[in-house]
Structure formats: C-alpha cells, structure tokens
Amino acid sequence: MSDASQISHLLFVKAECETCQLIEPVIGEAIDAGKAIRILVQDDPAFLGAHSPGDDTLLEESYRWNVETTPTLIALDHDRETGRVDGWDRAGWREMLDMPTLAEDLPEFRPGCGSRSLEPGIYENLVSSYGDPGLSARVVRLEEWDDEMESCFDHGWTDGLPVTPPTDARILRMLKGTSRAADEVIGKVPPNLASITVEKAAVNAVMAGCKPEYFPVVLAALEAALEPVFTLHGLLCTTCFSSPIIVVNGPIAKRIGMNWGINALGQGNRANSTIGRALQLIVRNVGGGIPGDLDRSTLGGPGKHTFCFAEDEYTDPDWEPLSVSRGFERGQNTVTLFQGDGVQGIIDWRSNTPEELSKSLAMSLLAVGHVKLAEFTNAMLVLSPEHHAIFRDAGWTRADITASLYDDLKRPGAEIVQGAQGVGEGIDPARGEETVNKFWPEGLLIVRAGGQAGLYSAILCGWTGGRFREESQPVTREIVL
Amino acid sequence: MSAITLRDPTAESAAVNRPRQPPPASLDGKTVALLDIGKMRGDEFVDRLEQLFTESKVSTKRYKKPTNTRTAPTEIIQDIVTETDVVVLALSDCGSCTSCSTHDLNDLDNLGIPGVSVLTTAFKQAFEQQCSKIGFDGASVYTPHPVLNRTTEQIHQFADSVFDEIRAAIVLSPAGGA
C-alpha cells in the first residue's frame, strides 16, 4: 500500500453493492497499471482483500469525504480532492485514471448504491462522533461505566419512569422532524418562565420517547400551552388535579399512527403516550414544575404523566371534528389543549333515543367538580361511536347535541345554592331564584373517540381555573410541519 | 464500552446537579441518623457526634455499614428512611468510602432524607467529582486528614470542631437555602 502522500485516488466501496462487485476486475486492472488507489470498504473488510483495502466500517472516512454513493472514486492532489465520480461511469473513470481503454467488457454506466454513511439512523451518529452537531444545550458527560438510564434519574430529569437518554444523534434525528430552526425561541415555560428553544424541546421529546414525526405535534402543543389564555402557569402549580390534555385533529393523527379507537384514552400507543409526556417533561425540566416544589397538586392524577389522544374523524365522515367546531378547516392539523383530568366514565346501556341519552349524559356531567357547582369548570365529553350513533341515527349533529346537553344541564338555583340539601358547597346563595347553567355556553367540548363497541362515554373534568371565563380557556392551534 | 455524552434537558438556569432535599427548619422532634460508613476509626468520630447531639437534646439513631467499600445495604437505607428524618454519614477518608458514601447520601436524599457527609479534607475533590457524576448537589463537611493515626482524643476534637457545621448542614439556613 502506498503512503498517504503518494495516494492519487480514494475509492469507497461496499461488498453488498452489486456495482462494486461488478467493477472488481477494473480495480485490479487500474492497480496493476500502477494507480495508487486507496480502497476503503464500508461493510466487509475482507472485500477486495487482494488489494489490501482500508477498513471504514466505522464510516469515519466516508463521512469526512461526504460520500453519497458506492462506488465513489475521488481524485486527490496532495490529499485535496480535485474531482470525483459517483457510481460506475466508464467514461468518467477512464478520464480520471487516464486509462482510455479501461473496462472494455463492462457496461458504460451503473448507478451504484447509497453510501452506508447516509443510511437512516447512521448519519446522525456520524455527525455526533466526527462532525459538529451544532447543538447548544449543555453537555453532560457520563463516565465509562455509568448507566445512562440511572443517570437520567439521578439528575432529576424524569417523571418517575425511565427516559430515552438524550444523545446528540437522537436529538439531531428529532430535529429533522420539523422545518423550524433549532435555535428558534418558542416562548417562556412557567413556573420559572425559562426560555425554550426548538432544540431544548427536542431534547425533552427524545427523553419522552417521541419519533421525529411526532415532533411538530409536540411543538404545537407547547405553543398552545404557552398561550396566555391557556394559563399553564396556574394549571401546573394548582392544588387541583388537572394538567394539559391534548386532542389531535387532522390527517397527521393517522400519518403518525395515533389512536382514536379502542382504548384511545389508555396506554399502548407510542404517539399518544409520548407526545403528552414530552409536554409534561418540558414543564418539569425547562419550566421547573416539579411535584412538591411548585407543582402543588393535592392528589395529582395519572394524566400528569401524559394525556393525549386523537379524535375519530374516520368512522363517521359526517361528524364535525372538534377543530372544525373551534374555527379550523376540515383537513387542517391541529392540537386542542384542555385543562382537565379524568377519566370519569358514563355507563348508559339503556337509552335509545337522542333526547333520553342527552338527559342521561347530562346527569353524569352535573357531577363535574361537584354536583352543586355551576359555571365553575369546563368539561370535555368523549362520546363513543355507539353512543354517538344514537344521536346520528336521529339526524342530530354536533351542534344539536351540544345545544340539547346545554338545556339538560340547567337546574333551579335553589337546589344547588350553598347549604341546600344539607351541603355547604354550592353556588352563590344570591342565585337561588335563577335557572343555572352547569357550564359556560362554550365550556363543554365534545370529542368523538373510542372503540366501535361499548355504550360508554367519558367525561374529562375541567380545572377550577375555568370559573374565570375570560381568563382561562382551552386553546386550539394549527400544527406546522 | 465508551463513555456517553448527553444534553441537558433543563433551562440550565441552575447547576447541572440536582439540588438536595431541603432539610427541616429545626431539629426539634426530629431524629438524626448517624450512619457509620464502616471505615476504621470512624466509630470513634461517630461516638463523639452522638454524644454532642445528645448533649444538645437532639435524638439520634446509630447505623453501621458492614463495609465502607460498598454502598449501604438496601435494608439499612430503608431503616434510616423509616426511622429518622436527616442523616449524617461519617467518616470518609479514602477513595472507595467517599464514592460509596456519596451514593448513600444521594440514595437517601432521593428517598426524602436530606443529609451531610463528613469526609477528610483530602477527599474534598473526590466527593465533588462523585456528586458531579451522579448529578447531585450533596452537602459535605471536612475534618483534617489523616485520621487513622490519631488518638481517640484527637478524633473527638475533630468531631468537636466540626459539630456546629454538621448541625448547620442538616437544618434549613435562615436565608431559605438548603
């Protein structure tokens, strides 16, 4: 093998590439003619063993020379590139090697294969090992024998469950999920009102277990959460149960494999589980909303790990999605963030007219917060397909259902004023003569989701902050890809 | 196996280390665990601490690790968590005892028992490095090094000289810091 100063050409190959196999005799022909070609093999170091190839199975050289194809022939002048031929191009090789009759028996052109260094999952590792990842978050170095999962716990970065360790390669892959710049500032996360960049959100999305294609949903959820009217600050410091609940609408739900069907509010789906968790980890790690410190929830709730699901926009094309009812176009990707907790199940196996079911659902909805409270919280009703079918078959739309429930949720004030029925909790005694609504007119959000079988619906109870009608509201926001 | 590099997911407004649990506002009605880490002569130091706490009417409970070269057995950690409120670990004067006792300090802190580790001055850097590797902002107090070749009386004097500092480290400071 020639020493570095004498090498005139670099040739990147891989054993599994048919074009590389095809040109094996050509390489022999060139070397026999005295060409100082340094061969670098990306996969099997024994390939082209007769020509003493270099081992580039770690792909460092392939990365440094920015190789996109195998074979790639690069001409050097004192270690500087003066030209390259990607794939097999007989005329190009003949010219570069100055061998006008090279490879008479071979076809003129073969495109070759993609370089291993560009394969999914590999490239970001090469950038983090050999290049400049361009990340600005503080580096935390572990020792050789440290357990990276335990280290994340020890640093206080987790919600009590293991997280995916945020390595540069994983963060770089996450950032590919968005068109937004890594250093773009999204806003200030309470309670510490700490600035968050796209990159810092990506670090937390990695830890939550998100795939890059979920990341735009995470960013939209974060932006919605940071809108002042969502009152995230109060929501995460509250003694109440609530936290952000994320409902995803639009084609992205299907594209990223979210669940709106069986067990939609439960476990088992990666996108549902990790998108909600990413937002919670951001609140914890960037905002400093740590239980017992500034998160003062008396009891908390399992939804504070994660609470995210999609609406079923598929099994009934006539159903008006939540996002459309909130002013967006059908087909637009959105997140709706609701301040809530739950699930409070409604069992109704017997209603079979829309009027009867509306009354029945309203009876359970009256319990939100407290039976005797009114206009105190919002609520989200998750209507299952079988319950919804009772309304649909009678020709009722979302607007009809909402209006009927609103009427069925009216009560005489005298029954629920403070002290009535022997219970101190209740509405202002001055409202005893009024007919009282349970929720603000816009305060009941209906989402259609769940398995096709089961005469159940679910209530996600709203937060006490909802009593300040103008100050604290759910937020819907478009997802920017 | 090569070392791994992670990126900080926090706002980086604080040190990378996790702050320790805030200690109680006072030791009234609290029990101080005195964890003898099992190093030779350490028991003499802990004897004196026990005496000093008793004289200042603070209740204590003694524990002893079977060896200073390993982290505390789970059972001892669990006993301390259920029976006491704060912990003093003593006395680390070597590399392995410093590393292991710092893990004990962190494990107890994670279970809600704030504490302080007493080490000899020679192991200040080792303690700080171990804390940094765990990602934990542990509290420490230092006595002169070495201790192995001292008389019991001298070891008791060391305990006397740092007792106020140890006490201060397991009570919330007036400024509100830990």
Give the gist of this structure.
Chain A has 481 residues and is α+β, with helices and mostly antiparallel strands.
Describe the structure.
The complex is a heterodimer of chains A (481) and B (178). With 481 residues, chain A is of the alpha+beta class. In chain A, the strands form six sheets. In chain A, strands 13, 14, 15, 16, 19, 20 and 21 form a seven-stranded mixed β-sheet that branches. In chain A, strands 3-2-1-5-6 form a five-stranded mixed β-sheet, with helices on one face. Chain A has a two-stranded antiparallel sheet with strand order 4-9. Chain A contains 16 helices and 21 strands. Chain B is of the alpha/beta class. Chain B has one domain (26-169): Rossmann fold. Helices cover 39% and strands 20% of the residues of chain B. The mean pLDDT of chain B is 91. Chains A and B meet through strand 10, helix 6, strand 12 and helix 8 of A and strand 1 of B. Strand 10 of chain A pairs antiparallel with strand 1 of chain B.
Q: How much of the polypeptide of chain B forms β-strand, as a percent range?
A: 15-25%
Please report the first level of CATH classification, the CATH class of chain B: Alpha Beta
Q: Count of helical segments of chain B?
A: 5
Distance between the first and last residues' Cα of chain B: 38 Å
Got a strand count of chain B? 8
Oligomer: heterodimer
Structural class of chain A: alpha+beta
Main sheet record of chain B: 5 strands, parallel
Tell how many strands the DSSP assignment of chain A holds. 21
Cα-based radius of gyration of chain A, to the nearest Å:
31 Å
CATH topology of chain B: Rossmann fold
Poorly predicted ranges of chain A (pLDDT <50, ≥5 residues)? Answer: none
Give the termini separation of chain A.
Answer: 50 Å
